[in-house]
Automatic annotation (TrEMBL):
Enzyme class: isomerase
GO cellular component, one term: cytosol
Organism name: Rubrivivax albus
Active site: H67 (proton acceptor), Y137 (proton donor)
Entry annotated with the keyword Isomerase: yes
Protein name: dTDP-4-dehydrorhamnose 3,5-epimerase
Gene: rfbC
């Protein structure tokens, strides 16, 4: 696997090695030892064990996020798309960080097989770019409703450039539409 830095220190693109021939292809989608070694090689802290896997399916134009969990159930997420495509976003929400409020976006598709590592301290969201987009999440802590938080997906101070066709509005859950802006949200540190 190949680990690529992004503009946000700690957020990493993971590109698996794919072996293909006329029969199809094979890839190792996750290997704990290689993943941890890749983070270490980039000078990053270990992710720790993954304890929960989630799978969502979204229609074109569905936007999920920006979600995170506070300690003691802060989550790191390793995410990928196995069908369709999505524009995936991480936002630094660590107060005191030199990158606080900055974001990075990566297109994850079933074809490019890329994954994104989002460590604790970052909010996460994505926009489904195709019908029937299947998104997989590995998390380093379990879902904990009392620690769950969200930030508005369209917070002008963050300024995420969501790839919305022709200025259309995304389909967003009511709780995500009601989420506070980052300046009012409970953030890390």
């Amino acid at each position: 696997m190949k680990m690529l830095r992004t503009a946000l220190p700690g957020v990493v693109i993971v590109e698996p090695q794919v072996f293909g021939d006329e029969r199809g292809w094979f890839m190792e989608s996750f290997n704990a030892g290689r993943f941890e070694q890749g983070l270490q090689d980039l000078g990053l802290p270990p992710a720790g064990p993954f304890v929960q896997d989630n799978h969502s399916c979204s229609a074109t134009g569905v936007l999920r996020g920006l979600h995170y969990q506070l300690p003691p159930h802060a989550q790191g997420k390793l995410v990928r798309v196995v069908k369709g495509s999505a524009f995936d976003v991480a936002v630094d929400i660590r107060r005191g960080s030199a990158h606080f409020g900055q974001w990075v976006g990566v297109e994850l598709t079933a074809d490019n097989r890329r994954q994104l590592w989002i460590p604790p301290g970052f909010a996460h969201g994505f926009l489904a770019l195709e019908e029937d987009t299947h998104f997989l999440y590995k998390t380093t802590d379990v879902y904990a409703r009392d620690c769950e938080r969200a930030i508005r997906w369209d917070d002008a101070e963050i300024g995420i450039a969501w790839p919305l066709a022709g200025g259309t509005m995304p389909r967003v859950a009511a709780k995500d539409s009601a989420a506070p802006e980052l300046k009012y949200a409970e953030a890390f540190g």
